[in-house]
Design goal:
Number of helices: 6
Order of helices and strands: EHEEHEHEEHEHEEEHE
Subcellular location: Cytoplasm
Catalytic activity: L-threonine + hydrogencarbonate + ATP = L-threonylcarbamoyladenylate + diphosphate + H2O
Family: Belongs to the SUA5 family.
Radius of gyration: 16 Å
Strand content: 15-25%
Protein name: L-threonylcarbamoyladenylate synthase
GO molecular function: ATP binding; double-stranded RNA binding; L-threonylcarbamoyladenylate synthase; tRNA binding
Shape: globular
Strand order of the largest sheet: 1-8-2-3-7-4-6-5-9-10-11
Distance between the termini: 42 Å
Length: 215
């Protein structure tokens, strides 16, 4: 049975965050608001929970799950190295709607799908998400919808699609942007935009001082 917490009320927000943290630590799924869309998430280091997330969405490991973090410094322990371009982009757009694909640290014990040694990282600009992430650590988070269906911009949208596969729903109102994050791959010789979303290509070019490659 799922529980929905209204995070616009302080008492309900505190109870919801405590319930969500407990759910994540016990290997269950939660839905949380972000600045772009609602996400369905779990402990990034719990392979069974990640498999449950993929099952809830109705998709396979061929589409790896991104990881959300609660601070800039968290990524230092998750990736092989943080290139200068990544630092520049993090300073400019985090927290916010930019996801960075980097080579993950080989020592990490996680299974996010067929990542080919990479991980997609983002720090969301939403106080509820940040508070939960700082409490439980990195979370594997994907858009809170069934595969092939419309992304959720409200907790109600997410619940209509995911129902009781999720233990806790944190209702933070309507997502501010209602569009997915921009995905930038920094694992090659040049930055490559895999998806343009909340951050424009022009904004990326301005920070990097060069034209990124678009797919």
């Amino acid at each position: 049975m799922s529980t929905v917490y209204d995070c616009s009320r302080q008492d309900s927000r505190e109870a919801g965050l405590a319930a969500a943290a407990g759910a994540v630590r016990s290997g269950r799924l939660v839905v949380l608001p972000t600045d772009t869309l609602y996400g369905i998430g779990c402990d990034a280091f719990d392979p069974a929970a990640v498999r449950s997330l993929l099952e809830a969405k109705g998709r396979g490991p061929d589409m790896p799950i991104p990881v959300l973090v609660g601070s800039w410094s968290t990524i230092d322990g998750l990736v092989f190295s943080v290139p200068t371009q990544a630092r520049q982009l993090i300073e400019a757009f985090w927290p916010g709607g930019l996801s960075l694909v980097l080579n993950h640290a080989p020592s990490l014990n996680w299974d996010l799908g067929e990542t080919r040694g990479t991980v997609m990282l983002r720090m969301p600009l939403h106080p509820v998400a940040i508070e939960l992430l700082r409490e439980v650590g990195p979370m594997a988070v994907s858009s809170a919808n069934r595969s092939g269906h419309a992304p959720a911009t409200t907790a109600q949208d997410a619940q209509a699609q995911l129902a009781d596969s999720v233990a806790v729903y944190l209702d933070g109102g309507t997502a501010d942007k209602g569009v997915a994050s921009t995905i930038l791959d920094l694992t090659g010789a040049k930055p490559v935009v895999l998806r343009e979303g909340a951050v424009t290509v022009a904004e990326l070019n301005e920070v990097l001082g060069e034209d990124v490659v678009t797919k």
